[in-house]
Amino acid sequence: MAEKLLITREELLKYTSIGGQTDMDKIVASMIVAEQITIQEQLGTQLYNKLKQLINDDTINDPGNEKYKFLMDNFVIQMMAHYTAAALYLVLRYQVNNSGIQIPTSADSLVPDASEVSTLSQNESDRGSFYIQRFIDYMCFNSALYPEWTTNKNDDISPSYGKNRTPFYLG
After folding, report:
1. Which of 13, 35, 100, 109 sits between 20 and 30 A of 54, alpha carbons compared?
2. What's the predicted TM-score (pTM) here?
């Protein structure tokens, strides 16, 4: 059985402006990038692996896993959806084949310029950052509930919970 991603296509379409006719191969590639780079960096390897195990085993909804389901429903799905969209917007307009990199067009559509695409991508990243910050705030007060968040070691990725914070008072 293939390994499942942290979110489904339906969840991605629900929380973003990505249309249902979008090429699933491009969606999955962007989902993998978002999950393995951005999401794992925020969760840390141990918590990431725990959530992946619960998703792959279809046990996320089982009694005793409510706290992990809470993380998924309130933070991870939204982070993943918005970072997937941000990655997808940057590659969606391009087609890579033996002829090189192309921008396909049709008679009844306009192709946005690179700055418009960059703006769309940045908007999705900003939305993802909002959910990352909410996740970090929650975890700072509830880390005892999730020992996986603080038990990364050796070559594990430790959560980058300080990445979106500044040590300076800006108010």
Report:
1. 13
2. 0.83
